[in-house]
Amino acid sequence: MSMKDRLIECVPNISEGRDRSKIDAIASVVNTVEGVKLLDVDPGKATNRTVITFVGPPEAVVEAAFLLIQKAQQLIDMRNHSGEHPRFGATDVCPLVPISGVTMDEVAEHARILGERVGRELGIPVYHYEHAAGEEKRRNLANVRSGEYEGLAMKLTDPAWKPDHGSAAFNDSVARSGAIAIGARNFLVAYNVNLNTTSTRRANAIAFDIREAGRVQREGDPLTGKVVTDANGDPVKVPGKLKAVKGIGWYIEEYGIAQLSLNLTDITVTPVHVAFEEACNSAHERGIRVTGSELVGLVPKQALLDAADHFLRKQQRSLGISEQEKIKIAVKSLGLDDLAPFDPEKKVIEYMLRDLEHERLVRMDLKAFSEETASESPAPGGGSVAAYVGALGVALGTMVANLSAHKRGWDERWEEFSDHAVKGERLRQELLHLVDEDTRSFDRILQAFQMPKGTHEEETARKNAIVEATKGAVLIPLRTMRLCLESMELMEEMASKGLKASVSDAGVGAMCARTGVLGAYLNVRINCAGLDEEAWTTEVLKEAEHIRRAAIEREAEVLKATLEKI
Q1: CATH architecture of structural domain 7-184
Q2: Is 219 exposed, middle or buried, given 0-12, 13-18 or 19+ CB atoms closer than 10 A?
Q3: Could you say which DSSP state residue 248 is in?
Q4: Are 174 and 126 in contact (CB under 8 A)?
Q5: 180-184 and 257-264 as β-strands: parallel, antiparallel, unpaired?
């Protein structure tokens, strides 16, 4: 499955968090739909609720969602349900979220299609919310779910809250299943902040400080004082500190602590680390300490990388470190391992979606990579090795930048060297990607040659495929040449301005970059030789020759600066 496909995410929350056999039976139906991938099943005992996450093409996800809702209706009896989290149905909410290649309007239409089918075939009262809502008051999930399951019978008698689909009568079937909210929304991060208190009241007070809706204004004591009203008799609201945040406080018996239960509805407005820090500030003002936090379901990788960058800046440390190290810093800084181990491979959506076969070579250790290169297979070959050598070269330049950022007495220059390191880390990641991409380009040429060639149409298609695949095999090492040459700017800066004790590393980095350029150059030349497109190959070879000469000249300059410092 590729992130380039048309993908949507579905995050149904079911009202069962304690009976693992029921949870697994409900979640497993997702795997019966071709093209859908079950990413996460996150049960909570105290809330008696499980968050299930899966992705796939829109039509397949809608089918999987229907089967899940149907199974939950069969196995969960809301008449016997209790839990800390607001809820009004066996499948309480079922949001669809655009991930790739799909607009919000399209996702909203898929939500309506799903809702209509659920109401028609299962008889469950369906309310559409967020972007799928038919009227403004139904956009907010809290409005749709107000009264919860206990108030559903009365709610269904109110014409203003007639379901969008399904039964409007609280019959035996509805008494068992409850209702469901099906919507389309942006990516939501369900985020709990752990407190060193058992007081739900104090946790609520902190949540009200933070959440956008704030709290009702009161005279005197903000928790127990008389409610202040306006001229119309309506309660006066005091807005909270953070936009795009919903939240309440609750006590979790499983852990013996109170938590803030926050929904970050737009992490471009309020990122995870901002919510965490604001929770820390509000808790401190009330004599309470935040001990950590937990993510319910999955989180976008960028949310953790942004958090790492935030805390690195506060420490005046270089941001040009590996993604893996940044994830570790985010986990520790946010205390995501406070209550249980945090496994990024199971909690970061991009890691769950990635195709590991596309990273086959770079995920090998050095010994395995060298053995794979030495084997009888023609790939990986010189192009992959050139990209890898280039990645090692820029890694050395990045190392010098990071060491320089931490040098005693250079504190005021940390951002200067951090900027260099960030650039180096970007180049390193791009070159590592090309290690596998170069081998895949060879595979594409082989596939083109294996195409049928019986008819004229087949022969034409085969010829065109060979040409396009060969051009790809030229452009990939050309990209390696460009990146290696660009990386030499970093080595030159580090040789002249970086930590003197590491200047030799900058020199070795420059030599690796030149090797990467020259190795990729040979691959450009040999693959161009197989193309019968003179105008195109002439332009490519002209650029390649220019890069080759520039790399040789720049390496000489870096080595000169290096030797002068040694």
Answers
A1: 2-Layer Sandwich (3.30)
A2: exposed
A3: E
A4: no
A5: unpaired
CATH fit for domain 187-297, picks 3.90.1170.50, 3.40.1620.10, 3.30.70.670, 3.10.450.50:
3.30.70.670
Domain boundaries, the chain: 7-184, 187-297, 300-336, 358-565
Strand residue runs (E) in 479-560: none
What CATH number labels 358-565? Answer: 1.20.120.680
What distance in Å separates the CA atoms of residue 282 and residue 419, rounded to the nearest whole number? 33
Q: How far apart are CA 433 and CA 483, in angstroms?
A: 12
DSSP annotation of 254 reads T
The CB density around residue 29, as the number of other CB atoms within 10 Å, is: 19
**Coil, helix or strand at residue 537:** helix
The tokens 């852990």 sit on which residue? 255
Q: How far apart are CA 127 and CA 47, in angstroms?
A: 22
Question: Both tokens of residue 154?
Answer: 């009365």
Q: With b meaning 16 or more CB within 10 Å and e meaning fewer, what string describes 373-384?
A: beeeeebbebbb
* Beta-bridge partner residues of 40: 53
Residue 456 has, within 13 A of its CA and on its CB side, a CA count of: 0
Whole-angstrom Cα distance, residue 117 to residue 62? 10
Do residues 236 and 304 lie in contact, with contact meaning Cβ atoms separated by under 8 Å? no
DSSP string, 148-168: TGGGHHHHHT-GGG--SBS--
Backbone dihedral region of 170: left (phi > 0), alpha (psi from -120 to 50 degrees) or beta? beta
DSSP state of 171: -
128 φ, ψ (degrees, to nearest 5) = -90, 140
Q: Is 131 a catalytic residue?
A: no
Active-site residue among 85, 266, 358, 406? 85
- Residue 355 annotated among the catalytic residues of the structure: no
Using alpha carbons, list the distances in angstroms from residue 70 to 73, 74, 164, 438.
5, 6, 18, 47
The active-site residue out of 92, 209, 436, 438 is 438
Indicate the pTM of the whole model: 0.82
Radius of gyration of the chain (CA): 29
- Going residue by residue through the chain (566 aa), what tens digit of pLDDT does each one get? 444 468 899 999 999 999 999 999 999 999 999 999 999 999 998 899 999 999 999 999 999 999 999 999 999 999 999 988 899 999 999 999 998 889 999 999 999 999 999 999 999 999 999 999 999 999 999 999 999 999 999 999 999 999 999 999 999 999 999 999 999 998 889 999 999 999 999 999 999 999 999 998 888 776 678 888 888 888 888 999 999 999 999 999 989 999 999 999 989 899 999 999 999 999 999 999 999 999 988 898 999 999 999 999 999 999 999 999 999 999 999 999 999 999 999 999 888 888 776 789 999 999 999 999 999 988 899 999 999 999 999 999 999 999 999 999 999 999 999 999 999 999 999 999 999 999 999 899 999 999 998 899 999 999 999 999 999 999 999 999 999 999 999 999 999 999 999 999 999 999 999 999 999 999 999 999 989 899 999 999 999 999 999 999 999 999 999 999 98
